[in-house]
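So, who can interpret the following?
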Amino acid sequence: MDILIIGGTQFVGRALVESALARGHKVTLFNRGKTNPDLFPQAERIAGDRMEDLDKLGDGPWDVVIDTVGYTPQAVKLSVDYLKDKVQHYVFISTISVYDMEKLQPGFDESGTLIELDGPEEDAPQNSLYGGRKVLCERAIEAVFPGHNLIIRPGLIVGPYDPTNRYPYWVGRIAKGGEVLLPDAASQPVQWVDARDLANFTLDMTEALETGIYNVTGPDRRLTFGEYIDYCERVGKASVSLRWTDPDWLLENEVTPFMEMPMWVPQQMMNPEVFMGVNVDKAINAGLKFRPQEETMQDTLDWLNSLDGEVPGAAGLDPEKEQALLAKLDA
């Protein structure tokens, strides 16, 4: 199969390209050439900005395009209009953030209520803007490729090369050992999908030219924050003392959920049973498979260790702030 990938050198795109090349597909990458430019020398590369340089793609043709970096409807509309006669099938990596979580119940599926940006974007709540834009991106694709598009809506994406540090934070922090501050939210559900499992499912569906919308997160059972921390302890093999701390105390002391303490979703922020309770039966029935949690975690820890102490993203609690909060707890 001749595949055009928009993006393709960071995290999800990287996993897609690795899997596509391993399967023997011919891959063309279209991106600005700024992130990991030396990756995948065996793939054809076209350097350009999707907002200005689509003409550099020429006439193709390709069997399919996989768009991994479509964040605004303006950018996606330009792409679909240019590619409408050059590809047969449009695959789009969207997000579960398209759903209006406040209007949904735990276990919602692909028919769930979507965010609607009714007015100017500058007037939209910041927490709705990302998902609302993705909704408009999906609609732009459906308008130009009706019956010839596949929309993948991932949840949190994890594994090696994660640039956010959300999942890696707890893996790396617990592997360092010592006293660890964390929210007393052991029973809270968590959901995510390994980028490589997401890539494999997307390519399986792409090879079959499947269409439709699929939520893609996991695992295939309820997983809790407490179990996640248990996995971190087993894989990290460090001597650690866990300080499970009252969430209200953390909020009062200006600890930011989800960013400073990744995966923690207090009720005041959003119902975690909804946000981390997405139904993925459709994707599982279509062939979505999950590698063991320990494999994702060990691979992530090995990658973190290769960074020589560099923090891969913005998420996570600053070590000095953690120590100050632990001292305050003991005062």
Remarks:
- The mean pLDDT is 96.
